[in-house]
Amino acid sequence: MTSMEIELKQISKYYQVPGKEKRMVLDNLSLKIESGDSVAIVGPSGSGKSTLLNLISSLDQANSGVILHGEREIGKLGEDEVAQFRNRNLGFIFQSHHLLPQLSLIENVLVPLIPEKDKKIKVEAEKRAQELIDFVGLSGQISQLPGQMSGGECQRTAVVRALIHQPGLLLADEPTGSLDKQSADQLGDLLVSINEKQKVTLVVVTHSMDLAKKMKKIYKLDNGKLSKI
Ligand SMILES: Nc1ncnc2c1ncn2[C@@H]1O[C@H](COP(=O)(O)OP(=O)(O)OP(=O)(O)O)[C@@H](O)[C@H]1O
Q1: Average pLDDT of the chain to the nearest whole number
Q2: What is the reported pTM?
Q3: 41: Cβ below 6 Å to ligand 1?
Q4: Which residues does 121 contact at the CB level (< 8 Å), separation at least 6?
Q5: What is the rounded distance in angstroms from the CA atom of residue 15 to the CA atom of residue 153?
Q6: Residue nearest to atom 23 of ligand 1 (CA)
Q7: Atom of ligand 1 lying closest to residue 48 CA
Q8: Atom of ligand 1 nearest to the CA of 16
Q9: Which of 3.90.1150.10, 3.40.50.300, 3.40.50.2300, 3.40.50.970 is the CATH number of 34-58+89-228?
Q10: pLDDT tens, 98-129?
Q11: Is 48 touching ligand 1 by the criterion CB < 6 Å?
Q12: What does the pLDDT average to over 47-65?
C-alpha cells in the first residue's frame, strides 16, 4: 500500500435530535489532503473534529458532498465494500489504546490478522509486525501484557496494530490525550517518522498544539468551517 490522497468536496453534516433544532456541524466544507501529507485538525470542543474524522474514515456519512480516497468515491460503495475498504486501507489510533488485557504485546498486534485466510498475507504481516515493533522500540517487550507496560508503550503498540495491514491512511483521534507530556512528545515524534518512512498519509485530530505543530499542515475547525493556520 502506498499513501493515499483524500479530497472532501463541499461536505455538510448536521445532526437532528428529535424535538430539537437541526445542528449544522460541518458547513459546505472542502479539503484536499495530498498523498503522504501529515495534517492536524484542531478546534474548540464540539466543533466537529471527530465528526470530520468519522466522515473521512467512512464510519459515518455526510448529508451532502463527496469524499474521495484516491479515485474512489466512498459514498458510492456498498456496506460490505466500505467495510473491506476500511480494513484494507485505513489504520486507526484513538485516545485509549484498546489493547486486550489478557493478550501479550505481539498477540495484540496480530489481532487484526485473525480473520485473514490467505496464508501468504498472514506470514508477510507477521514479519512486518516484528519490523514495526523494532521501529517503535518495543522489541524487548513482545511477551508483556498491557498491564505490565506504560501508557506510552501501550499506545505505541496500538500504533503498530494500526499499521499491520500497511494502510495508505492513518487516522488518529486525540492519540496523546491520555499520555503525560514526555510520552506524548515521544508518540508525536513516532507518528511523524511513520508518516515519513512508512509511506502513509496522516490525519490527526488533537487539542494539543504541541502535537499539531509536528504536522506539515494545521487546520482549525470552527463554526463548521476549516481554515489553515
Ligand atoms: N450522534 C450524534 N447525535 C447528535 N449530535 C451529535 C452526535 N455526534 C456529535 N454530535 C454533536 O456534534 C457536535 C460536534 O461533535 P464532535 O464530537 O465531532 O466534536 P469535537 O470537535 O470532536 O469535540 P471534542 O473536542 O470535545 O471531542 C457536538 O455539538 C456534538 O454534541
Answers
A1: 94
A2: 0.94
A3: no
A4: none
A5: 37
A6: 46
A7: 18
A8: 4
A9: 3.40.50.300
A10: 999 999 999 999 999 888 888 998 899 999 99
A11: yes
A12: 95
